Amino acid sequence: METSQAKKTKILLVEDDLNLGSILVDYLELLNYSVVHALDGEQGLQIYKNEEVDLAILDVMLPLKDGFTLAQEIRAENKRLPIVFLTALGQMDNRIAGFKSGADDYIAKPFSSEELALRIDAILRRCNSNGNLETNGNIKSFQIGLYFFDVENQELHLGSIKQTLTPKESGLLKVLCLNMNNLVTREKALTTVWGDDDYFMGRSMDVFITKLRKYLKDDPTVAIVNVHGSGFKLSVEKS
User: Fold this and answer.
1) End-to-end distance of the chain based on CA atoms, in angstroms?
2) In Å, how far are 35, 127, 128 from 54, measured between CA atoms?
3) Under a CB-based contact definition with an 8 Å cutoff, are residues 48 and 89 in contact?
4) How far apart are CA 40 and CA 236, in angstroms?
5) CB under 8 Å to 102, separation ≥6 — which residues?
6) What pLDDT tens digit does each residue of the chain (239 aa) get?
7) DSSP assignment of 26-57, as one string?
8) At what angle do helices 41-50 and 67-77 cross, to 10 degrees?
9) Are 146 and 59 in contact (CB under 8 A)?
10) Please, are residues 231 and 186 in contact by the beta-carbon 8 Å criterion?
11) Are 39 and 16 in contact (CB under 8 A)?
């Protein structure tokens, strides 16, 4: 009688460099991931639509459809899928553009195989299917003024209006909720949600703070306040 095996995590790799793509596929499969390799953005989108993947690793400079566009199209359908950009474009503007298009992480070439493995492991742990952070995972919902934040399903509700959050948006909002009306330092937010507090991660967090402010704008009693030089505070006026 055969014993059942746990389902492997499936990664969609979209990389047009055949040599690098083959190396990455072999390496990730050695780490016990299942990998589907696409050579251009259009093929990547079709694979995403036809197969159930757990994480997407996208190059930026792709034939037919660039990585930013592909990420935006995936995000339009799926807010929860972790997306990592893998690219030689290391400039800050391109990193910020990547996060704005819906990425959860960004790895600049050249990189070590160990770094890639650690990043993938960290993002899969943080961006799990329930959207829970590794700490305080038992808290499944918060009331934020008029809003109801369903942590488990990564949803923000205002009456009948529902906003589905990405893993990073949900994780960051949860950190703020756990410290409602108190300061959350930039370092604490970054290490909890991103696993790192370097400069580029800090810039990406600012993008996500802007998104959360937009989602919460319809309740004037709720605000995400900048605490100059320190961090942020989710301010909720008590009725």
Assistant:
1) 62
2) 10, 10, 9
3) no
4) 46
5) 71, 72, 74, 75, 83, 166
6) 444 456 789 999 999 999 999 999 999 999 899 999 999 999 999 999 999 999 999 998 999 999 999 999 999 888 889 899 887 766 556 777 777 777 778 887 878 888 888 888 877 876 654 443 333 446 788 999 999 999 888 899 998 889 999 888 999 999 999 999 999 998 989 888 887 766 667 777 888 999 999 999 999 999 999 988 889 999 998 75
7) HHHHHTT-EEEEESSHHHHHHHHHHS--SEEE
8) 20
9) no
10) yes
11) yes
Q: Which amino acid does the sequence have at 120?
A: I
Query: In the block, which residue shows the tokens 């990389």?
Result: 15
- AA letter at 59: D
Amino acid type, 227: V
Longest dimension (CA), the chain: 63
